[in-house]
Amino acid sequence: MSRIGGRELPEEQARAMRKARTLEWAVLAYTACTITVVALVMGNSQAMRTAWVEDILSTIPQIAFLVALPFVRRAATAKHPYGYHRAMGVGHLVAGVALLAVGANLCFEAISGLVKQEHPPIGTMQLFGVTVWQGWVMVSVMALIVIGPLIYGRMKMRLAKQLNNKLLYADADMAQADWTTNVGSIIGVLGIGMGIWWLDGAAALFISLSILWDGVKNTRASVLDLMDMRATTFDQSEPDPVHGRIDVLLRRRRWVREAASRIRDEGQVLHVEAFVVPRRGTVKVADVDRAVADIMALDWRVQDVSVSVVGELDLPEEQEQERERAGRGG
């Protein structure tokens, strides 16, 4: 677990990658237990059933990460000259679409139940020889399992930042928000117990909307990545700062008059295309090779670099700046 594509990982990232793989397997085992327990106690509560489905769906990003991991470690080949890094993006898209589809279906069921004014019954059960209202068992189970996602969600988030992995970030983000599902299902069950029948359906609708929103967010993020949007930070909140650092590094060279770059963000690693306008008519191959080596050394995520010597810059960013300057001048 010390390589991604054709490049060795720094020790910190290699250790984080091993932790992420171990954590995903551990969380999958934990989630399998919670899915089984919730299935045993959920009864006729629609909110509980929706929370149970969300638990099942939460395994999709984890499985996608574990399936994609062996692919992204492979070196580039003649058939796949950019390597297999898109495997993470494909897994991200699959997880997003699954959440979107199931979330929409659960929303429809929740609204349908409210419109039909369905009154879900909750009976009693024998527990250690004592008859108890099943709702108390449901509430106890959901209150107990709310703790796990709060802990491993934070652990995953920390690893996602270290690895710049958007699929792991999406998984961590969902886990950290999972407590709202548990609280929603508890409110739904207590609502049935108090005779407020619609509270269960409303809680189911709230949970299904959160699933639907996760689906929208993850599908959008993965599609933007697959469409080669400008490189961004792991949470897609802002442009990746490495872009500016590469341009500054090139512009400081004595033989470079102007420089700009564009970066293909593949979720975890970067492929850089840099363009330089030289001060002189001739450029030494050694100078270009040194620039490539320095960009590679700038950040562990830089997987591949090409530097092109051109007469003038003609990238979209320069074109947009030129249009802005022309607009201000007009």
Description of the structure:
The chain is mainly alpha-helical. Helices cover 64% and strands 12% of the residues. The chain has 12 helices and 7 strands. The chain has helices at 11-41, 46-57, 59-72, 86-115, 134-145, 147-163, 166-176, 178-193, 198-226, 242-251, 285-298, 316-329; strands at 3-4, 7-8, 124-127, 130-133, 256-265, 270-278, 302-309. It has a 3-stranded mixed beta sheet, covered by helices on one side. The chain has a two-stranded antiparallel sheet with strand order 1-2. Strand 1 and strand 2 (7-8) form a beta hairpin. The protein is elongated, with a radius of gyration of 25 Å. The relative contact order is 0.13.
Blueprint of the fold:
Layout: E1 3-4, E2 7-8, H1 11-41, H2 46-57, H3 59-72, H4 86-115, E3 124-127, E4 130-133, H5 134-145, H6 147-163, H7 166-176, H8 178-193, H9 198-226, H10 242-251, E5 256-265, E6 270-278, H11 285-298, E7 302-309, H12 316-329
Parallel strand pairs: 6-7
Antiparallel strand pairs: 1-2, 3-4, 5-6
Helix pairs in contact: 1-2, 1-3, 1-5, 1-6, 2-8, 2-9, 3-4, 3-7, 4-9, 5-8, 6-7, 8-9, 10-11
> Which residues sit in consecutive blocks of at least 5 with pLDDT less than 50?
none
Number of helices: 12
Instruction: Give me the strand/helix succession.
Output: EEHHHHEEHHHHHHEEHEH
Strand content range: 5-15%
| Number of E-state strands | 7
Spatial strand order of the main sheet: 5-6-7
Structural class by secondary-structure content = mainly alpha
Instruction: Determine the fraction of residues in helical runs and give it as a percent range.
Output: 55-70%
Rounded Rg: 25 Å
Q: Please summarize the sheet with the most strands.
A: 3 strands, mixed
Based on Cα principal axes, name the global outline: elongated
Could you give the distance between the termini? 56 Å
What number is the mean pLDDT?
87
